[in-house]
Amino acid sequence: MTTEIVTNNHQRGIRHNAGQFSLQALQVFFVGLVIGMERAVLPSVAREFGVTPGAFLFLASFVLSFGLVKGPLNLVAGGLADRFGRKPVLIVGWLAAVPVPLLIYQASDWWWIVVANMFLGVSQGFSWTMTVTSQIDLAGSQQRGLAVGINEATGYVAVGVAGFAAAYFAHLYGARPALLWFGLLVIAAAFFSLFFLRDTQAWVKAEHHAASQGSSQEPPPQLARIFMRLSFHDSAGRAICQGGVVNKIADTLVWVMFPLLFDAHGAPLVEIGWLTGTYAIVWGLSQLWTGHLGDKIGRKRPITTGFFVLAAGIALTALGQGPAVWLPAAVVMGVGMALLYPNLIAAMSDRAPPLIRGKALGTYRFWRDGGYAIGALLLGGIAQMAHNVLPVVWLTAVITAGSGLWLWLALP
Question: Which residues contact 177 (CB under 8 A, 6 or more apart)?
Fold first, then answer.
């Protein structure tokens, strides 16, 4: 692996910063466990409150609240990180996670779950954003895709592991007790590991100093200007942002609608857990090579291929009637997500100088995770009108393929 030397104290490169890079990976593993514990279990918790499987929009409300909070806070987190450093924002993210398992356990109606997911959105918006930004800070410019791939691989393997584990423990002990103790143990472990973590802001300043030697020092542009440029004025930035929205619409389909689809065909809770978990684990593990692939051949081909493969996997799920088809479809979807996901983030990072990296990534993650809210409203509303999950599965496949075409035309 290539190592870029910026200063004697803050050399950049994954190998040189292996200790801190690994601690950041451990943090994102814990982050993935917290969000993953909900995926297979919460739709079944809804039955405890009399929420029927046909109330699609109501069921999607917990993802809607998550997306409405996480999207804007990704943007806020990027600005705060550039100003105050990465670690303080990460700590705030973990503090926001503490109420999540407590609220789910104590819930007296479904709206407690919605509020719990608002706290989860705050936590994820601050914590996951900081881990990926910090790992990019530590890596060299030729290793951004690899850094993002390792980050996302670690996080989404944890999502899959938590889906398996939470479904199994929920089967043994009940959904809410399983989420309570699983969540609290993960959060406690995350806080313990924070004691050994260093803020990566020093690496950012060293990188900026090396890059700006001999040039005039101008203050970095404000967040609003960066947001408008990357969201609307820059054609490649605009395409990357819409790609982020669409990939989260697809993930909302898996999070909310796939458990209902599988349940309607008689799949038990544990089977639903390993089907959704397989998708997340394949997605996670595959990013160990797909992010690095983007460093080698460019971002465009992995991103666009990923969208088309993801669309194919969604369509295959719609055609299936049981796990003999759904399991291969989950693998296909996982590979598609792995190709597009780290390379979208790396593509946005490529367009940002070091001192505005947090704001640029926050802009992308604002749109990307806003896709959860858009997906919950769009998919939940259409399923509610159709009284059926299947139409939204086909619609998502079409939207995903269309997003891939847009990116193919717009990306350099």
Answer: 105
| pLDDT the model gives residue 176 | 87
Q: Residue 352, CB half-sphere, CA atoms under 13 Å: how many?
A: 32
Six token digits for residue 26: 């451990």
Poorest-pLDDT segment among 43-47, 124-128, 252-256: 43-47
**Distance between CA atoms of 258 and 265, rounded to whole angstroms?**
11
Closest CA to 257 of 131, 78, 155, 392: 392
Closest CA to 36 of 147, 154, 194, 134: 154
CATH of the domain at 234: 1.20.1250.20
Q: Is residue 2 part of a domain?
A: no
Q: What is the pTM of this model?
A: 0.78
Structural domain contains residue 241: yes
Judge whether residue 397 has pLDDT over 90.
yes
pLDDT of 153 over the 80 cut: yes
pLDDT of amino acid 109: 84
Is 243 a domain residue?
A: yes
Say how many domains are in the chain: 1
Q: How confident is the model at residue 319 (pLDDT cuts 50, 70, 90)?
A: very high
Range of the domain at 172: 18-203+222-410
| Tally of residues, the chain | 412
Contact in structure between 292 and 146 (CB atoms under 8 Å): yes
Residue 13 lies in a domain: no
pLDDT class for 218, splitting at 50, 70, 90? low
Given a cut of 70, whether residue 378 has pLDDT beyond it is yes
